[in-house]
């Protein structure tokens, strides 16, 4: 891995428009569970698989059950940024990184100091009344029992992209545009199996495509550099000059 880390450092040194594309693995190193890794726990406590609970039709049909799962599994408000989050913020501040594109909804990149973050799947930190549009902080959703309700009586829904819902067009376009203009694309903590991750990668035109993941991905053969390991340790080891 030492040789790979040296190559990563060299390319970071030479690049000025780095884009980082991250998946669930970036957050799991902050202690946030990947809800897609269905374990026995879910089956013991919930009558439905997480993919079904986190769908729009389930949200509409059983909002109370949705919110129970959501509060317990998706709201990890005590989680702290890890070295990967902090290094990316540092790279942006140094003028070397254009943006972070993330599939995570926890807001940890912003908490670490990142400013330009494309949250493909939305954020738990934004919540709106479905009737009048009033905004509510995440604490309101956390602390309200049952189904969170606006003063007007409408249901407060998190701005999180559920299964069956479309990605936000402006967010997707911003991410695509940054990836197209990138001189280095670092992909971390994702198997690239979840839509639209794989198609986003195809917009990259450069020759510094780096994949950092604990396990192999279908894109390893396309990458210019593959590093197997934890994203926090590997990105955290990069020096910003
Ligand atoms: Zn309302």
Care to count the β-strands? 9
The outline comes out as elongated
Q: Going by CATH, what is the homologous superfamily of the largest domain?
A: TPP-binding domain
CATH architecture of the largest domain, please?
3-Layer(aba) Sandwich
The molecules bound to the chains, other than polymers, are: zinc ion
Overview of this protein structure:
There is one protein chain. The chain has 241 residues and is of the alpha/beta class. The protein folds into two domains: 1-32 and 80-121 and 166-241, TPP-binding domain (Rossmann fold, 3-Layer(aba) Sandwich); 33-75 and 125-160, 2-Layer Sandwich (SIR2/SIRT2 'Small Domain'), CATH 3.30.1600.10. It is built from twelve helices and nine strands. It has a six-stranded parallel β-sheet, sandwiched between helices. Strand 7, helix 11 (197-201) and strand 8 form a beta-alpha-beta unit. Bound molecules: zinc ion. Residues 129, 131-132, 134, 150, 152, 154 line the site of zinc ion. Zinc ion binds next to loops.
Q: Which key terms come to mind for this protein?
A:
about 240 residues; alpha/beta; Rossmann fold; SIR2/SIRT2 'Small Domain'; 2 domains; three-stranded antiparallel beta sheet; 9 strands; binds zinc ion
